[in-house]
């Protein structure tokens, strides 16, 4: 199962026939294993990794740290679910450490993302504070390298 998951993580477009050859199994065995992984909630979806800088050079992605007050009956769950409902939000993760929730948001420009944080996230009663970090460049996403083999032409200078 681990080998199948690793293959799907690296390329979810592999066919069952290709996976069967790689795993030394039949297509039917692979299909049954994938179906079980989906049914058990281990595989929850499939997605394409898009280099946003190439697709839309004007878009911006921000990682927003939230310190929140957990709710008496639901802890962080209700807060996280309400944040996840926003269209701009790509991911919501409960964290350990200096902040509680990490939110990833993509927008058309910095002003739009800043407005979203101020008007939507900071306005949630349970949110104590926010810290917004704008993504400058991605090198690897979900285990996949997203940079072309670019040559660093800055060069080194010695005195």
UniProtKB/TrEMBL annotation:
The keyword DNA-binding applies. Residues 1-77 form the HTH asnC-type domain. Gene3D superfamilies: 3.30.70.920, Winged helix-like DNA-binding domain superfamily/Winged helix DNA-binding domain. One of its GO terms (molecular function) is sequence-specific DNA binding. Coiled coil: none annotated. It comes from Ruminococcus albus. SUPFAM superfamilies: Dimeric alpha+beta barrel, Winged helix' DNA-binding domain. One of its GO terms (biological process) is response to amino acid. The keyword Coiled coil does not apply. This is DNA-binding transcriptional regulator, Lrp family. One of its GO terms (cellular component) is cytosol. InterPro entries: AsnC-type_HTH_dom, Dimeric_a/b-barrel, Tscrpt_reg_AsnC-like, Tscrpt_reg_AsnC/Lrp_C, WH-like_DNA-bd_sf, WH_DNA-bd_sf. Keywords: DNA-binding, Transcription, Transcription regulation.
């Amino acid at each position: 199962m681990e080998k199948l998951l690793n293959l799907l993580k690296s390329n979810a477009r592999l066919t069952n026939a290709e996976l069967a050859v790689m795993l030394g199994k039949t297509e039917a065995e692979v299909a049954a294993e994938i179906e079980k992984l989906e049914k058990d909630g281990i595989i929850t979806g499939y997605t394409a990794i898009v280099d946003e800088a190439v697709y839309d050079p004007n878009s911006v992605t921000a990682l927003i740290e939230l310190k929140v007050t957990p709710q008496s009956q639901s802890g962080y769950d209700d807060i996280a679910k309400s944040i996840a409902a926003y269209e701009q939000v790509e991911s919501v993760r409960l964290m350990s450490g200096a902040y509680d929730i990490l939110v990833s948001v993509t927008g058309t420009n910095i002003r739009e993302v800043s407005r979203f944080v101020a008007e939507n996230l900071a306005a949630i009663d349970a949110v104590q504070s926010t810290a917004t970090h704008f993504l400058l460049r991605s090198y690897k996403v979900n285990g996949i390298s997203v940079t072309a083999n670019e040559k660093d032409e800055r060069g080194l200078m010695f005195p």
